[in-house]
Amino acid sequence: MSVILVFLAVVIGFSFWWLFHQKVMEKPWLEHGVHTALPETDVSGMPTAKVALAVFLAVVGSLFALFASAYFMRMDYSDWQAPPLPRILWVNTAILILASVALSCAVRAAREQRRKMTRLALVTAGLATVVFLAGQVTAWRDLAAGGHYLDMNPANGFFYLMTGVHGLHILGGLVALGRTTVKAWDDNVAAEQLRLGVELCAAYWHFLLLVWLGVFVLLAGWAGDLLALCRQILT
Amino acid sequence: MVDATPRAERDIPPAEVPELELYHPKSWWTTYVFSQDAKVIAIQYSGTAVAIGLVALVLSWLMRLQLGFPGTFDFITPEAYYQFITMHGMIMVIYLLTALFLGGFGNYLIPLMVGARDMVFPYVNMLSFWIYLLAVLVLAASFFAPGGPTGAGWTLYPPQAILGGTPGGQDWGIILMLVSLILFIIGFTMGGLNYAVTVIQGRTRGMTLMRMPLTVWGIFTATVMALLAFPALFVACVMMLFDRVLGTSFFMPALVEMGEQLSYGGGSPILFQHLFWFFGHPEVYIVALPAFGIVSDLISTHARKNIFGYRMMVWAIVIIGALSFIVWAHHMYVSGMHPWFGFFFATTTLIIAVPTAIKVYNWVLTLWRGDIHLTVPMLFALAFIVTFVNGGLTGLFLGNVVVDVPLSDTMFVVAHFHMVMGVAPIMVIFGAIYHWYPKITGRMLEDWMGQFHFWVTFVGSYAIFFPMHYVGLVGVPRRYPEIGEAAFMTAPVDNLNAFISVAALIVGFAQMVFLFNLVWSLRFGKEAGPNPWRATSLEWQTPTTPPPHGNWGDERPVVYRWAYDYSVPGAPEDFIPQNDPWPEKVAARPA
């Protein structure tokens, strides 16, 4: 359970940091009758959608941290047999990085209000992501062709489950990306609104890329070495 | 006194919160059924939760009939008993308490109390309810599935949960249960995003975090915890569903069933327990924190006194929330864990008693020399404090490994968690309904029915759960439909079991009076007016009662003070609403 605890420590640490910046040391019971003017608001100027995405990504992060925790706990058993890593995963990783880079370009283009460039970058990101998903399915087929079915070994189960859940999240993101791309073609949509949409997509993609890198490290079996290294450093 | 320098007119910052674009319903369907108004969604959530909760209540009667009068009722077979116990537990904890506190009270109170017009994403909020309803329907469908609902116990421990010997294990029961839980979590995440982000982003001018009523603090913290903890249940459910349907072995070790080697092998049941309780323990506080918050507001309002130690109360809520993530394994002392782990988790468990005790002291000190009005909501709030202390004290027993090991799996544990997590939050729910019903409907609940409901419920629940501690101490195990001959099954224990069962039936029927009151007062209750309890928080200051879609008329309220200005010396009345700039009136409001 150490992965989820580390993740939660980060989230809780951030929450406390945020709380400390919200005047939580005020003494509201001493504030009698000092107001001759309208009080100001302390709500942040950040767009609500961004805050919501941040909270949602914390939930997604918690989900994958739990999968990783379960993976580590199960890995310690002696009968653990990891399936071979399909080669195509390397290609897929590169393609997902490409999608993230494309979305970064889209954010830049949207900030500079260059519509054409934004459209191009969004479409590139979308296509790259679709190719990534197709690549993941190919990886599954490779494994199955090699006789590594879902129910053969818990390690296989984790492989299909984690790639599957990650793929589902990407698929959900594609819906949002699709809607933003449609907006980019609609000239009635204000530049501000488009920019927000593109930024949200980019944040989501970067986060899922990060999650994928974590999943990839786990599935490639480097996690054990990493863990051993951590232990060595600690002791 | 803080800095009292008046602000010059030109320093007034412009309103930074943009107005929410509200969806304006055009037909009856979009106004009352597919509504995006948080208040309607709250009532839908509450109605659904209470409806499925009544099913769980009936199940508890059936269990008590079996335990009190074993062998009398033929239709309660051991299999049926396990199904009752499982569905009762799961419904009460998740589909009733969690849904009612967060989906019901959260939806109704958060926007009103922070001065928002609605939740920040009304459409997602609506989806949240409909997915919750679907989850409840899937759960209820398992009663009619071949083989009936699952009988795995509410903790659904593998491997027994998906084996043929457990009711529903190889039928539809467990599948429907897992699917229903997965749906619930998806639906909750949609709602939870709304509750949390509305508190962060939707507050009106002047509503700083430290001016929020403790109800909002409780619901907000519980929501954040639930958002982080429910994924653990999600992971556990998905993996178990894979084990059951696709034949993977995440949790299933190699087993021989009825002389046959099953195809499972290599899974770890303990892994499930870790995942389940990583959700399960925060769940206790997901239910308790909103109750803590609501009860603070009830006590302050009905004792006409400001809450004692507001800042400490807020921090206690936040710290309990954080600590509750590192105590989960105290549910697993008997799973064969390393003694050092047991020691660690016993320590964290006992530490969490500190902020909890701070809260209890502060409630008692709020009551101290207060002008206590023994209204029905106040009675329920007082009953909560007493019950929570009772349940909390037995929690100190069970938090210690050496005491827990012999008491584990006895009725003592059942008595403990029903006191602390069943009776106590339910008391708050009742108190809260009596308190806010006038705002929701514009009419008061009938008082004598409320008094009757309170006394029967309060005395009755002690009649049920106090003797149960003793029954557990003498060694009666939990989860057994029938014990038969045993050294500890003496005549007094048999009599106590029968007594508990009769008390449970009486308390159950008293709830019918409450339900009747809810319906009857809708039509015949006394007119409440906008603020019958003379309370300070914003929901009582709406221009119309019940508040319409959008809550506030033309202009959102502006907040000048915290929510607890009761009995302020020199004030014209014994309460000052949060949006009242007393003693100085604001001359002109900038547009």
Question: Your description of this structure?
Answer:
The complex is a heterodimer of chains A (235) and B (591). Chain A contains seven helices and no strands. Chain A is mostly helical and 235 residues long. Chain A has a domain at 81-234: Up-down Bundle (Four Helix Bundle (Hemerythrin (Met), subunit A)). The radius of gyration of chain A is 22 Å and the shape is flat. Chain B is mostly helical and 591 residues long. Chain B has a single domain (35-252, 264-541), classed as Cytochrome C Oxidase, Chain A (Up-down Bundle). Chain B has a two-stranded antiparallel sheet. Residues 1-16 and 587-591 of chain B have low confidence and may be disordered. Chains A and B meet through helix 1, helix 2 and helix 5 of A and helix 5, helix 6, helix 7 and helix 8 of B.
Question: Secondary structure elements and their pairing?
Answer:
The complex is a heterodimer of chains A (235) and B (591).
Chain A: H1 2-20, H2 48-75, H3 88-111, H4 115-145, H5 154-185, H6 191-220, H7 222-234
Chain B: H1 28-33, H2 38-68, H3 78-114, H4 122-141, H5 173-201, H6 214-246, E1 256-257, E2 260-261, H7 269-302, H8 310-323, H9 339-351, H10 353-367, H11 376-399, H12 401-407, H13 411-441, H14 447-473, H15 491-524
Helix pairs in contact in B: 2-3, 2-4, 2-15, 3-5, 3-6, 3-7, 3-13, 4-5, 5-6, 6-7, 6-8, 7-10, 7-11, 7-13, 8-10, 11-13, 11-14, 13-14, 14-15
